[in-house]
Design goal:
mainly alpha, 4 helices, transferase, phospholipid metabolism
Protein backbone atom coordinates (compact mmCIF):
# COMPACT_ATOMS: atom_id res chain seq x y z
CA UNK A 1 0.00 0.00 0.00
CA UNK A 2 1.42 3.35 -1.05
CA UNK A 3 1.28 6.10 1.53
CA UNK A 4 1.34 9.78 0.75
CA UNK A 5 3.83 10.36 3.59
CA UNK A 6 6.42 7.77 4.54
CA UNK A 7 6.89 8.53 8.25
CA UNK A 8 9.96 6.31 8.68
CA UNK A 9 11.68 7.89 5.70
CA UNK A 10 10.95 11.38 7.05
CA UNK A 11 12.20 10.46 10.52
CA UNK A 12 15.38 9.09 8.96
CA UNK A 13 15.85 12.36 7.06
CA UNK A 14 15.52 14.33 10.30
CA UNK A 15 18.08 12.03 11.94
CA UNK A 16 20.56 12.62 9.09
CA UNK A 17 19.98 16.39 9.35
CA UNK A 18 20.56 16.26 13.12
CA UNK A 19 23.80 14.32 12.55
CA UNK A 20 24.90 17.07 10.14
CA UNK A 21 24.16 19.78 12.69
CA UNK A 22 26.06 17.90 15.40
CA UNK A 23 29.03 17.36 13.06
CA UNK A 24 29.03 21.06 12.17
CA UNK A 25 29.39 22.13 15.79
CA UNK A 26 31.65 19.26 16.76
CA UNK A 27 34.27 19.60 14.03
CA UNK A 28 34.10 23.12 12.60
CA UNK A 29 35.86 25.86 14.57
CA UNK A 30 34.03 28.74 12.87
CA UNK A 31 30.68 27.12 13.64
CA UNK A 32 31.71 26.85 17.30
CA UNK A 33 32.55 30.56 17.32
CA UNK A 34 29.19 31.41 15.73
CA UNK A 35 27.40 29.20 18.26
CA UNK A 36 29.20 30.88 21.17
CA UNK A 37 28.28 34.29 19.77
CA UNK A 38 24.66 33.15 19.40
CA UNK A 39 24.57 32.02 23.03
CA UNK A 40 26.00 35.38 24.13
CA UNK A 41 23.34 37.16 22.07
CA UNK A 42 20.59 35.08 23.70
CA UNK A 43 21.91 35.95 27.18
CA UNK A 44 22.11 39.64 26.23
CA UNK A 45 18.60 39.47 24.77
CA UNK A 46 17.22 38.04 27.98
CA UNK A 47 19.07 40.67 30.02
CA UNK A 48 17.82 43.51 27.81
CA UNK A 49 14.27 42.07 27.67
CA UNK A 50 13.86 41.98 23.92
CA UNK A 51 10.27 42.04 22.75
CA UNK A 52 8.71 39.45 20.44
CA UNK A 53 9.60 41.23 17.18
CA UNK A 54 13.16 41.90 18.33
CA UNK A 55 13.56 38.22 19.24
CA UNK A 56 12.18 37.22 15.84
CA UNK A 57 14.72 39.44 14.07
CA UNK A 58 17.65 38.36 16.24
CA UNK A 59 16.82 34.64 16.02
CA UNK A 60 16.36 34.90 12.25
CA UNK A 61 19.79 36.48 11.92
CA UNK A 62 21.34 33.80 14.14
CA UNK A 63 19.73 31.08 12.05
CA UNK A 64 20.93 32.66 8.82
CA UNK A 65 24.52 32.89 10.08
CA UNK A 66 24.53 29.27 11.26
CA UNK A 67 22.91 28.04 8.04
CA UNK A 68 25.39 30.03 5.93
CA UNK A 69 28.25 28.47 7.89
CA UNK A 70 26.77 25.00 7.28
CA UNK A 71 26.46 25.65 3.52
CA UNK A 72 30.00 27.01 3.44
CA UNK A 73 31.33 23.94 5.24
CA UNK A 74 29.44 21.60 2.92
CA UNK A 75 30.77 23.37 -0.18
CA UNK A 76 34.33 23.33 1.14
CA UNK A 77 34.16 19.61 1.92
CA UNK A 78 32.70 18.84 -1.51
CA UNK A 79 35.35 20.98 -3.19
CA UNK A 80 38.09 19.11 -1.31
CA UNK A 81 36.74 15.78 -2.57
CA UNK A 82 36.37 17.02 -6.15
CA UNK A 83 39.83 18.53 -6.24
CA UNK A 84 42.16 17.61 -3.35
CA UNK A 85 45.04 19.47 -5.02
CA UNK A 86 45.11 23.26 -5.34
CA UNK A 87 42.96 24.52 -8.19
CA UNK A 88 42.23 28.20 -8.88
CA UNK A 89 38.52 27.57 -9.59
CA UNK A 90 38.08 25.59 -6.36
CA UNK A 91 39.80 28.44 -4.50
CA UNK A 92 37.34 30.88 -6.09
CA UNK A 93 34.38 28.71 -5.02
CA UNK A 94 35.69 28.49 -1.46
CA UNK A 95 36.36 32.24 -1.32
CA UNK A 96 32.85 33.04 -2.62
CA UNK A 97 31.31 30.70 -0.08
CA UNK A 98 33.30 32.22 2.79
CA UNK A 99 32.41 35.67 1.49
CA UNK A 100 28.71 34.76 1.62
CA UNK A 101 29.08 33.85 5.28
CA UNK A 102 30.84 37.16 5.94
CA UNK A 103 28.02 39.08 4.24
CA UNK A 104 25.41 37.36 6.40
CA UNK A 105 27.49 38.02 9.53
CA UNK A 106 27.86 41.71 8.65
CA UNK A 107 24.10 42.09 8.23
CA UNK A 108 23.52 40.20 11.50
CA UNK A 109 25.91 42.55 13.30
CA UNK A 110 24.12 45.59 11.88
CA UNK A 111 20.74 44.20 12.99
CA UNK A 112 22.27 43.48 16.40
CA UNK A 113 23.60 47.01 16.70
CA UNK A 114 20.22 48.46 15.76
CA UNK A 115 18.35 46.34 18.30
CA UNK A 116 20.83 46.05 21.16
CA UNK A 117 22.27 49.53 20.67
CA UNK A 118 18.83 51.10 20.98
CA UNK A 119 18.13 49.09 24.12
CA UNK A 120 21.48 50.03 25.68
CA UNK A 121 21.06 53.73 24.85
CA UNK A 122 17.66 53.76 26.54
CA UNK A 123 18.94 51.72 29.48
CA UNK A 124 21.89 54.06 30.11
CA UNK A 125 19.78 57.21 29.62
CA UNK A 126 22.03 58.28 26.76
CA UNK A 127 19.00 59.22 24.64
CA UNK A 128 19.80 62.92 24.81
CA UNK A 129 23.25 62.24 23.31
CA UNK A 130 21.87 60.45 20.23
Amino acid sequence: MSRWIDVRKNLRSFRFAAEGILALFRFENNAKIHLLAALAVVVAGIWLRLDRVEWALVLTQMGLVLAAEAFNTALEKLADVVSPEHHPMIKAVKDLSAGAVLLVVIVAVVVGILIFGTKLIKMMNWSEWF
